[in-house]
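Backbones bend. Our protein:
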Amino acid sequence: MSERVLQILISAFPKLLLYCVKVTVPLTAAVFILSILIALGTALVQIYHVKVLDRVARFYIWLFRGTPLIVQLYIIFFGLPSLGIMLNAYVSAVIAFSLNYAAYNSETIRAAILAVPAGQTEAGYMIGLNRFQIMTRIVLPQATRIAFPTLMGSLIGLTKDSSLAASITVVEMFKTAQQIAASTYEPFALYCEAAFIYLLLCSLLTFVQNRLEKKLEWKKPEVSKA
């Protein structure tokens, strides 16, 4: 590695890190929270077979799982203005990512809820709980443990996919790397540096996932020896 390239990487690193913290991380967090909320609502609509909404939910999941995320980004940011709907790049990215990831997370949450034994729900009714109390106090806490690893995997994937926001002019970390590469003519080194920061971020999330999974593990009751 030449001294010039090394100097470019050193000077670029703080700027890439700044946009990672300033844009990439908040974008990822906002999208993940919204996608979980949408996914939970969509999953419950299907589980309880809510009229009309059930079919709408299934169509939505089919549509967003069956089309590429990059195409969804382009439709929302570049396509909607032709219909008179103007959205800035950041809002467009949040909407597209949230709807896309919610479609996948919905199936994860639905499967986790259905994996909770039916006897748990029946027991809840027997002690006088209503449907809402059973879902929030009994079913969802158990479903969370089941769905947690897959949802964390979704978060890690979202962290990497957030770089696609650069395609609709969102100035996040990867877009910043592109801009610096265009002015310094060192795309290989700068893209590798951006990839390294993504790797660090995803490694941190993986570490957090492993620690939380241990805390959420089912603990077998200790059997006292007579």
Remarks:
- DSSP finds eight helices and no strands in the chain.
- The CA atoms of residues 10 and 41 lie 46 Å apart.
